[in-house]
Amino acid sequence: MTDQQNTAANEEETAPQFSLQRIYVRDLSFEAPKSPAIFRQQWEPSVALDLNTRQKALEADFHEVVLTLSVTVKNGEEVAFIAEVQQAGIFLIKNLDDASMSHTLGAFCPNILFPYARETLDSLVTRGSFPALMLAPVNFDALYAQELQRMQAAGETPTVQ
Fold it and tell me: What InterPro entries does its record include (predicted)?
């Protein structure tokens, strides 16, 4: 019986673990350089989205992942507004091999953070008195796969910080 308990305890200690600890806004920015004149013009927006992720190892098995969404909206040739949010999360991740850890930090965690970042950005834009900004879902697995291909072509290897 004791051997079974020890085996079960050892398996538990080496089993992969993932736990979301906290989600928070790390940084937030909004600029409307042509206000209030922009509100009196015909609204024909064009939206440019820049998306970025980064991760940092914290103490023990904790990791911070930061998803940055930067949106520039132009009305014709004039910038209507620029909004940026850095949505972050602290994750407990244990007992993953390097490839799985890289994928978890590079795709899985940003996928968790994206709905929060999208809602924060939308709220920020509507508080600036602009129409709601509903960003389409993002396939972080595909973006991660593209980045791996780019790194392989350049002779780089993915690293987990």
Answer: SecB, SecB-like_sf
